[in-house]
Amino acid sequence: MKKTAFLGALTVAGLTAGAASAATLDDVKARGNLICGVSTGLVGFATPDANGVWEGFDVDMCRAVAAAIFGDPMAVEFVPLTTQTRFTALSAGEIDLLSRNTTWTFSRDVDLKNDFVGVNYYDGQGFLVPKALGVSSAKDLDGATVCIQTGTTTELNLADFFRINNISYEPVPIETNAEGQQQYLAGACDTYTTDASGLAATRASFENPGDHILLPEIISKEPLGPLVRHGDNDWADVVRWTLNALITAEELGVTSANVEELAAAAGDNPEVNRLLGTEGELGAMLSLEPDWAKNAIMAGGNYGELFEKNIGENTPIGLARGLNAQWTEGGLLYSPPFR
Amino acid sequence: MSDTHAQTVSYVRETMLPETDPPVKERGAVKWIRENLFATWMDAILTVISLYIIYYVVSHVGPWFANGIWNAGSLSECREIRNATIGTDASAACFAVLSDRWQQLVFGFYPQEHYWRPVAALLVFLAGLAPVLFDGIPRKMLFVTAAAPFLMFMLLWGGPIWGPIVVGLGFVLGYLAFRALTPVSKLLSNLAALIVPLVFWMFLTGPIAGALSSIAPIGLEFVPSKDFGGFTLSIVIGVAGIILSLPLGILLALGRQSNLFIINKCSVAFIEVIRGVPLIVWLFTASLLLNYFLPPGTNFDLMLRVIIMVTLFSAAYIAEVIRGGLAALPKGQFEGADSLGLDYWQSMRLIVLPQALKISIPGIVNTFIGLFKDTTLVVFIGLFDPIGLSNAIRASTDWNGIYWELFVFIGLMFFIFCFSMGRYSLYLEKKLQREHR
Amino acid sequence: MSTMTDPPKPGFRLSQLIYDTRYRSLTIQTVALILIVSGLAWLVSNTVANLEALGKDFNFGFLSNSAGYDINQKPIEYSSQDTHARAAIVGILNTLIIALLGCVTATVLGVLAGVLRLSKNWIVSGLMAVYVEGFRNVPLLLWIILVFAIMSESMPQPREFRGDAPTASMAVFDSVAVTNRGIYIPSIEFTRSLSGNEAVASQEGLAPVATGWQDWALIIGVIIVSIYVIRLIRRRADRIQEATGVRPVTWWLQIGVFVVPLAIVAVLLGATIVQPYLKGFNFTEGVHLRNSLIALWLALSLYTGAFIAEIVRAGILAISKGQSEAAYALGLRPNRTMNLVILPQAMRVIIPPLISQFLNLTKNSSLAIAVGYMDVRATLGGITINQTGRELEGMLLLGGFYLLVSLLISSAMNFYNRSTQLMER
User: Residue A104 and residue A122: Cα distance in Å, rounded?
Assistant: First the structure.
């Protein structure tokens, strides 16, 4: 009987979230904050700091969406999710948006009823090996022991890769990236495989990063992106175009430093004007404020700024832009036009 | 008799010899060592092995511990300090991570200015427990026990104070209805005691509490469940699980003892199914499946779902403990109650349960220890218990790569909690044994 | 107050359903049944509605799809192209393996620690107390993680065995390699295997060997028959001893019955010891006890052993002191007193809680998740659910499996309890 009482008390205290209806945007607005699923801890992408404030590349994506809706990048509640629980949390409506270095695949999009709204990081699965091993290609890894995170696409890629090349391996499944790092450093596996970005981040934290190399082979395509529940196109549009706004902002040279100035009045560039809401009604079409994109960009900066701040070459992680450069600079980032 | 012979027999000594010390083998440290450590060959071998184990552990862990560095901002800083002061090869613990993050390990992301609240809640819990556990305390204190769950809830989650108060009012209403209708009909009064509070909670609690909080918005600042973490989370889940599972556990135990076929079989089935499946599977059920079982659209936070699952889980174990208590009660107690003409619930409430529960307390404490330790499993569904937090801390660039220090700290904390509770339950068992003689 | 005082009246009134104790129980049970059934129906209808809303269906067809992932420890043939069902079976076998290994070592450790904790030797009993309290009061998960980390940090890597001046070497006549990836021990294979598998030479210049379950079935069968014959011999010796007072010497016969048939079978099959050796990145051949297996095994045994130690200690203390004093008076030495007088009596107190510890150990083996041991929770309940998104079906199967194992173990316990109860006076 006390249980009922407890439930009742919790209901009163407002702990139960409202019913997850089809219109996520309305729910989010009514609730006053965005609930965003992130990793339980991945260097550079999502970690809580000493005060419990989340930071990282994936986290900033959530903050940009929150800023676009509310004008307040802090109006986000973060739900840490494991690889096991992430999709269920999304489909059950516990979170509005999953931004957790998740690979866009056919079955996840179609069978698991998710909607990937875009790609915020083009990744690929690589191998990290100690220099002392004397291996220069992943095809030399016949018989090697491979540390691998479970519950991800990486284990499927790995099985395929070794099968295609007709070489054998010994998988050592591990639960978290931190665990994998410890196992690899102790030499319990010859190579550690996961997304190349994760490998770079991991290597950066080693005592002697120079003793380890990334093998040239990238054995898979891993387009990582934010995703939402299937069947709510309005909400998917909000997230998709927030992401596109960040990318376009970089392309057009709109940064967190000059966005205020550019948004003050309509300027010469019509696309910048449309983006920042000084011209046209793009915001209203998304059921958002006219200055939604300005707020999203002010939250942490444009795509390039977020990248540099969290995982770029000046951070300990030190990732190069590579595929994630703008299409104008030889990368794959190519936002549809704002018009 | 001997003195008659003393003068006549020549080989009997006439004077006492001065007392001498016992031989070296039979006194002091040597005797103690010989008897306690080297009594037999087997003993000697075991002693030597034990000494070697102790030496091995101390020689490996000792320097690491003694060289511990407490003041540094990150692991690399720790390494620099070590290289500068001790040498690059020396093993040194980097306890700086604890000085930096201990608050997080204990309180999770609970707002810093409100740290006193979990502490106060723990004190309230202990105060509520005192009259149950110690005899010397006046019975009046039991009111504190009854109020403690609501107080703890208010302290931990905060929000307007009216919610818990109105919910508590439901119990009072139920009791009043029971008292009012008892002269009319026993059956009616029992039904009323059940239905009145339920109706009250379902339809009236929300509006009344809402109205009251809009009239008089008194209360502590609301802290959402997601801010709970570290040992606070473990303790909250463990304590909530045990407190909430007690009523259900008692009902299940009575059901299992009952000779009503259907009720008996249902209780047995529930208990066996819950006990037969590992907690981790239940936790995954809570995190992956519970939403399927509830009406479409309902949705509440993970911590609450975990508490519900843990409650059901520990109810099955508590039921077994209480069943043991019921079985240990002399049959005369049941028969005595029957002979007084008490009906089933009266005899249970007034005679059987108070005694059976008292015998069961050590078992309940042990169940709690087990549950408390098992709360570490919530890390696998993404809650930040101490182990989950250790993963999160290691994912920050500052402390990436740190390992043992965090686990040693967590292990030590758990040890202190569980060991002291274990000692307490042992003391209780001994006391109960004495009382039974 | 009591309803029994009224003389039963003929006929049946509706109020009897409530006021007559004979019928009231029926009423209560009917109400309870209706409540429970409607509660279950509510849950099921919710589930159906939710599944529909999510556009999912409820079927187990995914089990026959290709799994696509690899498993390192395979008691039966398995490759990434096999089905999810086969992956689940591999996981089930791995769970059973760890549970069996754990139960055996936990019992040995627990009995040892329990007896030693009662030792008069101050250091030994103190050490055992530290062990028991240390393991009982710290979560198992932490121990598993710690043991795993210690294993991988402190053992040598395979590459340290290589080269002209290796820093690590193999133990036990160069046949066992202890590495931080696990322990490699020699295996036994057969030049004339019954399995029909293709025989392969493990190293250049060695005879080609193969192995299959048929070989092992034959060997185990022979051992069982030998043990049965040995028991017959012992019983015959007992009879002769009772009749004549002289026990015939049979130890050579017993050893012979055990060894000779085994040796014959071994020679017929061409049993060969295959030693592990370093090839490429790792040791190959032999049996590879993986780090995850060893860490989980050790941690589970140590943890459960600590609980068993307490059970054993309590069991021994439950035997009255008169028993051991009487045994001493008969001139029995302490260890024989323990073996012949105390332990057999303590068994009755010890075994029921011991079996429930076995049950706990089996359930706790699901913590394999912490070290990546591929048990049934990791395959069926982990990767399969994750890759197919069939959490409802997968969790049902997983829960069903654990429930089945628990029910089997607890029915064994009930059987034992009943059989010991009969012996009580």
Answer: 10
CA distance B243 to chain A (A): 9
User: How many contiguous H segments (helices) and E segments (strands) does chain A have?
Assistant: 14, 14
Q: A239 φ, ψ to 5°?
A: -70, -45
Distances (CA, A) of C65 to A159, B205, C86, C93, C404: 16, 51, 10, 20, 25
- The residue of chain B nearest to residue C380, with distances taken between CA atoms, is B281
Other CB atoms within a 10 A radius of the CB of residue C248 amount to 11
For B333, phi then psi, to 5°, come to: -65, -45
Residues A1-31 as b or e (16 or more Cβ within 10 Å = b):
bbbebbbbbbbbbebebeebeeebbebbeee
- Nearest by Cα to B208 from B171, B170, B177: B170
Question: Are A247 and A303 spatial neighbours (Cβ–Cβ below 8 Å)?
Answer: yes
* Chains within contact range of chain C (3+ C-beta pairs < 8 Å): A, B
| Cα-Cα end-to-end distance for chain B | 47
Nearest chain C residue to A144 by CA distance is C281
Give the distance, in angstroms, between the CA of residue A21 and the centroid of all CA atoms in the same chain: 25
Q: For the purposes of burial, counting CB atoms within 10 Å of the CB of B406, is it exposed (0-12), middle (13-18) or buried (19 or more)? A: buried
Neighbours of A300 (CB within 10 A): 22
ipTM of this complex prediction, to 2 decimal places: 0.84
- Residue whose entry in the numeric block shows the structure tokens 């349960």: B353
Is residue C138 within 8 Å of residue B415, measured between CB atoms? yes
pLDDT at B403: 79
Tell me if A155 and C382 make a contact (CB, 8 A cut-off).
Answer: no
Compute chain A's Rg from CA coordinates.
21
Residue range B146-198, pLDDT digits in tens = 888 888 888 888 877 777 788 888 888 888 888 887 777 777 777 777 788 78
Q: Determine how many CB atoms are found less than 10 A away from the CB of residue B331.
A: 7
pTM of the model: 0.84
Task: Identify the DSSP state of C66.
Answer: B
Task: Select the residue of A17, A48, A81 nearest B392 (Cβ to Cβ).
Answer: A48
| Segment C61-80 mean pLDDT | 86
Q: Residue C93 contacts by C-beta under 8 Å, 6 or more apart in sequence?
A: C75, C76
**Cβ A337 vs Cβ A247: under 8 Å:** no
A78 closest CA partner among A117, A111, A35, A134? A35
Count other C-beta atoms under 10 Å from residue A316's C-beta.
16
Residues paired with residue A214 on neighbouring β-strands, in sequence order:
A128
What sign results for the dihedral spanned by CA atoms A110, A116, A119, A122?
A: negative
- The bridge status of strand A54-55 relative to strand A222-224 is unpaired
Regarding beta strands A34-39 and A76-81, do their DSSP bridges make them parallel or antiparallel, or are they unpaired?
parallel
Sign of the torsion formed by the C-alpha atoms of C307, C313, C319 and C323: positive
By Cβ distance, the residue of C149, C282, C386 closest to A170 is C282
Burial of A160 (0-12, 13-18, 19+ CB in 10 A): middle
CB of A88 within 8 A of CB of A26? no
Min Cα separation C420/chain B (Å): 19
Type of residue numbered C273: I
Per DSSP, helices labelled H in C190-331 are 213-244, 251-269, 291-318, 321-329
DSSP characters over C77-128:
---TTSBHHHHHHHHHHHHHHHHHHHHHHHHHHHHHHHHHHT-S-HHHHHHH
Distant-in-sequence contacts of A47-51, Cβ < 8 A, 24+ apart: A47/B392, A47/B395, A47/B396, A48/A78, A48/B109, A48/B392, A48/B396, A49/B396, A50/B100, A50/B101, A50/B104, A51/B112
CA distance A150 to A161: 16
Question: How many angstroms separate the CA atoms of A304 and A252, rounded?
Answer: 11
Q: What is the pLDDT of residue B436?
A: 57
The full length of chain C comes to 425
